[in-house]
Amino acid sequence: MPPIAFIIFASIIVILLLRYHARKSLLSPPSNSPLGLAHERVSYYELLRATNNLDQVNLIGRGSLGSVYKGIFSNGTTAAVKVFDLDVQGALKSFDIECQILRSIRHRILVKVITSCSNLDFKALVMEYMPKGNLDQWLYSQNYFLNIAQRLGIMIDVASAIEYLHQDNSLPIVHCDLKPSNIILNEDMVARVGDFGIAKLLTNDRRMELTKTLGTIGYMAPKYGSEGLISTSVDVYSYGILLMETFTRKKATNEMFLGQLTLRSWVFGSLPNGIAKIVDVDLFNVDRENIRAKHEMLLTLIIELALECTTDSPEERLNIKDVSIRLKKIKTGVQEQQNRGRLNE
Q1: What are the catalytic residues?
Q2: What parts of the sequence cross the membrane (predicted)?
Q3: Considering just the CA atoms, what is the radius of gyration of the chain in Å?
């Protein structure tokens, strides 16, 4: 074969091989999962089959950067498939951040990721399926109800997860977006924290960082929202707002909160004698006056704790470990009342 013909032939072979590998990358994730997990890899087409081509019937939830679908895979496994909308600015970065964060954490109260699917045009995470939905659904759907003990248990679970992120991981992790829709519930109503799309991994020598990526309005700490200043106290503030919302059943983004009136200022204004006017009315669905008084005492302790988590000054906020300890003490009081048959179920 003449040299020129050989060069042309070799070039064609190279082009065909490149096209083959490029097409192959669109059909399946890369050989090394970005999560570094040893689980069986899943292809793009298998994700489509599992979710019936991302059918809306299988839609579990939708966020600003993508959607989550229920998927049933060929081996019978049911999982949640989080598909990132790559047309939205920040979605690709969010996928990379979640992969980085989730690769470094293992905790029973954090949503477990099974594997990922990643190619040029498609990014998705395959996660454990949580059949009870999220806290937002349980608080605001007419078909669900959580009693005091259940709400308290959920918030203790969340505090435990945040404590792990802040103190028990090799490097501190700030979730940055705690809110009811990111608190997922398993079949036993155990809460797990999910969605690490804007989380920050702090270094040992820097306990505070700046960011341009902000969390959800109503849940952001003041300096986080105004200056983009990130530290573990940011999560404590959001946790305090979440605690208030869980027991008042009033969204931090409720239209009643305008101008200077916020969920925190509304709650603060109710103390010390107006707790019954702000908490979820269903928690006071009892007839006996002495039982109502017990409810008021426990709920006041919870709300006071939430207010301590949400002070304007980050330095004055509680440590999440101390929050967890105090909630567990309150839970002991709740259990004592339950044992005497004095709490509504």
Answers
A1: 177
A2: 6-22
A3: 24
